[in-house]
Amino acid sequence: MNLRVGLIVNALAGVGGPVALRGSDGVAAQALALGVLPQAGARATEALSALREFGTELTVITGSGSLGADAASAAGLSCKIVYRNPGRGSAEDTATLARRLMLMQVDLLLFAGGDGTARDVAESVGDSFPVLGIPAGVKMYSGVFATTPSAAGTLAVRFLRTHTRRVRQCEVMDLDETDLRSGRIEPSLFGYVASPEDPRLLQGRKVRSGAGDAVQAQAIAASVVEAMEPEQIYLIGPGSTTWVVKQALKGQASMLSVDAYVGGQLVLNDATASALLELTAGRLARILVTCIGGQGHIFGRGNQQFSAELIRRVGRKSVSVLATPSKLISLAGRPFIADMGDRASAAEMTGYVEVVNGYRSKALYRCEAF
């Protein structure tokens, strides 16, 4: 068996998340100047580590440096460089390398990035070539991504070991990050790619809120506000369900931001990861988030301001997930997912978390963290 896996890493993917920039397109330099350390390479390495079991039977075909060779080497894999660029990479580099890997007929193309990277890959290889995304962006609406980097590695191994190599057509979605920063959420469909089939390891498409969810969200918000302790800090994440809670409190917040409240009053707007750590030092805090319908993520998708250090500090018992019944039904029994990228915080979040699913209605729901 002689396996060849293509690899593309968008080294700057996700850098805007921790500093509340809601994306990385056009603002990567700003994020780096604020001290953010790129994580896409490390997340690619985490996924690639699963491929070590193939030994000398597998070669990673990739670009130089941060485009993929660094991640492959860090994972202990043999690699062949077929494209060189001295910089951190661009959309043009992604497209060029993707076309080259398709022409070489690699067994599977892995890419680490977000929806923008997925779009560049899809436009380059079409919908008949096996592609799998390693989640490394801020927002990820596309169904081409595995649920976590480790899930991407597991799914890649299963795909490469089978003879039939079943794939399914997955949506590639993206939105204009300038619109996103202005509060407009309008993702568009840009095409499809063929991805390895596994409903538990592949995140699938985001399920939109149902017609009755607005009423349920109002009931959830009323319950949450009624139960708030006056001295406790409440850190409220982005999303349509949590937005209803923010609207019931005092202060000008946003549907897309992470905001902090004390005594029903906004005390920190559009918080960064470092600002949240500073605010909660030595104080009691509770995190309120929602889950992504159909996917189940509660951390690691559009709310990277909730850092691993903050999660360890607050603890799973002080996390509440606000989810309408239809959102829970859309998960079809699959657990919530906390994509933390940190072992200690993943261990903290693995277990059952509190769910507020109606007025004075709570439940416990399983969370798996990585």
From TrEMBL:
Keyword Transferase attached: yes
Top-rank lineage group of the source organism: Bacteria
Keywords in alphabetical order: Kinase, Transferase
GO MF terms held by the record: ATP binding; NAD binding; NAD+ kinase activity
Pfam family, one: NAD_kinase_C
GO biological process terms on file: NADP+ biosynthetic process
Name of this protein: ATP-NAD kinase family protein
